[in-house]
Amino acid sequence: MVEPVVLKGVTGPRACDPLILMFGLQRKPIAPPVLLACAWCERVDLDGHWHEQHAAIERLRTYEWERPPRFRSSICDACIGTLSRKREWKEPTQ
């Protein structure tokens, strides 16, 4: 019976990683992409187009990612238009 190779400080499924076993190297985790999300309606910007959250999840298949995506707040065109109209309506006229 072959004894498993045990490396100091490496545990779990990564202990059988070929790079670790052959060279003692550890792979750096890949950071997930940073996505823009509207702070008001929570739509997600994909390639310059705003999508509802569920559509973005389906398109990117984030449920298959090892790590969840990171988000940066923004504002979509529809929400900025709505906010601009509300602001114009509330401003007093002189």
Order of helices and strands: HEEEHEH
Kindly estimate the percentage of residues that lie in beta strands according to DSSP.
Answer: 15-25%
Alpha carbon gyration radius = 23 Å
Uncertain runs are: none
- Quick one: how many beta strands? 4
Write up this protein:
There is one protein chain. The protein has 94 residues and is an alpha+beta fold. The protein folds into two domains: 1-30, no CATH class; 34-90, no CATH class. Helices cover 30% and strands 17% of the residues. It contains three helices and four strands; from the N terminus they run H-E-E-E-H-E-H. It has helices spanning 18-23, 53-60, 77-90; strands at 34-38, 44-46, 49-51, 70-74. The chain has a four-stranded mixed sheet. Strand 2 (44-46) and strand 3 (49-51) form a beta hairpin. The longest helix is centred in the C-terminal third of the chain and has 14 residues, at 77-90. The radius of gyration is 23 Å and the shape is elongated. The N and C termini lie far apart (90 Å). The model has no long low-confidence stretch (mean pLDDT 77).
